[in-house]
Amino acid sequence: DLPWLFHGVVIGTLVTWVLFKALPPGKLPFVAILAFGTGALFAILALRSFVRGSAIRVLGPERVVLVGNDRMAHVLVRKMRGHREYGLDPVGIILCGDREAPEGLPVLDGPGDVAEIARNAGANRIVLSHSQLSEEQVVDIVHRCKGLAIKVSLLPQVFDALGPSVEIDDVEGVTLL
């Protein structure tokens, strides 16, 4: 968030300074505007950090079901467990290959599609490794999850799914779309 917040505060501070320079009656020294911008940036960062931490403490971590079973699923589970500050709790995996599930992570199975299995596990989010799935299967899972209000994150193969509503997240160096 820091680059976006920094740019927003700098632009807001410069616009405020220009307005005070152009409009009478007051002249505001540049040092005062600089101090305001710096203070605003740190205050916004502290407030956002406090609110995120409070939300995780009050609401609990987001329950995550992983779909697929490539090497990145194992890495992602380890990173989620090692960094509780992300607010992600892996609760199960739906295997699409013949590899083993990450240690301590239950394999989810049952009647129904991936979205229904995730809903039955109480998941708030699905992390989808689509290397073993066709494009049609991925699109179907995303649509079904949208209908059940389950968020979907994609472990990208290549940045092939970028669009206007895609958010890019980072979990300790692992990119999620």
Q: How would you describe the overall organization of this protein?
A:
The chain is α/β, with parallel strands linked by helices. Helix content is 47%, strand content 16%. The chain has 5 helices and 6 strands. The strands form 2 sheets. The protein has a 4-stranded parallel beta sheet with strand order 2-1-3-4, sandwiched between helices. A two-stranded antiparallel ribbon has the order 5-6. β1 (62-67), α3 (71-82) and β2 (88-94) form a beta-alpha-beta unit. α1 packs antiparallel against α2. The model has no long low-confidence stretch (mean pLDDT 80).
What is the molecular shape?
elongated
Q: What's the total number of strands?
A: 6
SS strand fraction? 15-25%
* Uncertain residue ranges: none
The helix-strand sequence is HHEHEHEHEEE
Helix content: 40-55%
The N- to C-terminal Cα distance equals 16 Å
What structural class should be given to the helix and strand makeup? Answer: alpha/beta
Largest sheet: 4 strands, parallel
Number of helices: 5
Q: What is the spatial order of strands in the main beta sheet?
A: 2-1-3-4
Radius of gyration: 22 Å
Mean pLDDT: 80
